[in-house]
Amino acid sequence: MRITIITILLLTSFSSMFSQKIEEEVGFKYVKAEYLMTTERLEDAIKELNDIIKVSPVYKDALMLRANTRYRLGAFKGAKDDILKSIEAIGITLGAASLLGKTEYALGNVDPALNSLTAAISLGSQDERIYELRADIYEDKGELLKACEDWYTAEDLGSTKGAINARKFCGKRTNSSEPTKTPPVDVGTSSTSDNSDDSTEEESTSPTNADNSSTQSNDNSEEVVDDEINSVPIDDEDNSTIPVEDNTPNKIEIDEDLSLSIYGQGIGKRKILDRPSILILSDQTGTVVVEVCINENGKIDYAEFNPAKSTLTKNSLVSLAIRKSKEFWFEKSDYKKQCGFIVFNIKGSE
Q1: Which residues have CB under 8 Å from 206's CB, separation 6+?
Q2: Per-residue model confidence as pLDDT tens digits over 312-350
Q3: Terminal alpha carbon distance of the chain
Q4: What residues form DSSP beta bridges with 339?
Q5: What is the value of pTM for the model shown?
Q6: Between 114 and 232, residue with greater pLDDT
Q7: What is the mean pLDDT of the chain?
Q8: CA of 168: how far to CAs of 182, 192, 226, 238, in Å?
């Protein structure tokens, strides 16, 4: 009897030590994954998160962290799958509703996107991009008054896109927050396509209609720029704080295999004080487009892959482009924020 008790105690102790070791390993991998995401090494972050989720699917917010990483790489179906698993495990959260709304929109599922974006707003979202996306959906549906309300809110949260669109389409706000003018705008109703049944996906897959307000994928930066409205001034007393839609490009030749084009809201005219060394080896030819926002001090504090404008979606190229975009440094500006695009024009060896 005594031997049996000792054996049970030893087994219990061994099991506790083993569990503790697993917990420590998972915790270390989680911290490592967070660091890799912070430094824009998105592919490596996903590998660490895969290991964590295999051992403990509900460990902290590993599923949402992987969903966010997949979203940033343009792997939207995988991101959606992770979000739904997270919601099933711990319920709906502000972060889950927000990311699901953006993911559904990227997949072209307009009505589910609208529902999730509205849920995120009802949960207290203060993310300007949530309001921008919902405004885009309302505009496409022909509901301009609702779009204007969201553009105004996005502007209040710091969105230059919201400010520009509010001035273009809505006029100045009245006390009731309704526009004082509503000029006719040609809008179409977006069709809804539900991709929710897709359970498998290559991590490099991207949609063909991820951004209803963007141009379609282009083979070079000149086509991207030409499709935009160029140098449209805003007739408003707040001109000094709101950038104009000036898409004059700054074209930079890196080497025979890579050139860059920087444009949007006047950033093409903004002097570059420091730029990173960039070496891209690819067997494919095409473009990777990163949407960026530059603060008044010249630092890029937002960089996100734009699959609708890109023709290449390989994970390693996307991750590198995002990381290198954040390493640019521009001269100071009177604008608190200017947003635009950095186009990586890649000549492959194929």
Answers
A1: 74, 76, 307, 310, 313
A2: 999 999 999 999 999 999 999 999 999 999 999 999 876
A3: 74
A4: 293
A5: 0.74
A6: 114
A7: 82
A8: 10, 27, 20, 13
Closest CA relative to residue 316, chosen from 293, 288, 343: 288
- Cβ atoms of 102 and 114 closer than 8 Å: no
Instruction: Classify residue 283 as exposed, middle or buried by CB count within 10 Å of its CB (0-12, 13-18, 19+).
Output: exposed
Q: Which two tokens stand for residue 45?
A: 């972050």
Query: For tokens 């996100």, what's the residue?
Result: 304
The C-alpha atoms of residue 74 and residue 240 are separated, in whole angstroms, by 35
With beta carbons less than 8 A apart as the criterion, state whether 64 and 82 touch.
yes
> Distance (Å, rounded) from C-alpha 115 to C-alpha 39?
32
Nearest to 287 by CA among 247, 316, 325, 258: 258
Q: How many CA atoms lie within 13 A of 2 on its CB side?
A: 0
Q: How far apart are CA 327 and CA 348, in angstroms?
A: 23
Residue 153 near residue 138 (C-beta atoms within 8 A): no
Quote the CA–CA distance of 313 and 1 in Å, as a whole number: 65
Q: What is the 3-state secondary structure (H, E, C) of the chain?
A: CHHHHHHHHHHHHHHHHHHHHHHHHHHHHHHHHHHHHHCCCHHHHHHHHHHHHHHCCCCCCHHHHHHHHHHHHCCHHHHHHHHHHHHHHHCCCHHHHHHHHHHHHHHCCHHHHHHHHHHHHHCCCCCHHHHHHHHHHHHHCCCHHHHHHHHHHHHHCCCHHHHHHHHHHHCCECCCCCECCCCCCCCCCCCCCCCCCCCCCCCCCCCCCCCCCCCCCCCCHHHHHHCCCCCECCCCCCCCCCCCECCCCEEEEEECCEEEEEECCCHHHCCEEECCCCCCCCCCCEEEEEEEEEECCCEEEEEEECHHHCCCCCHHHHHHHHHHHCCCEECCCCCCEEEEEEEEEECCCC
pLDDT of residue 6: 59
Residue 76 in tokens: 């939207």
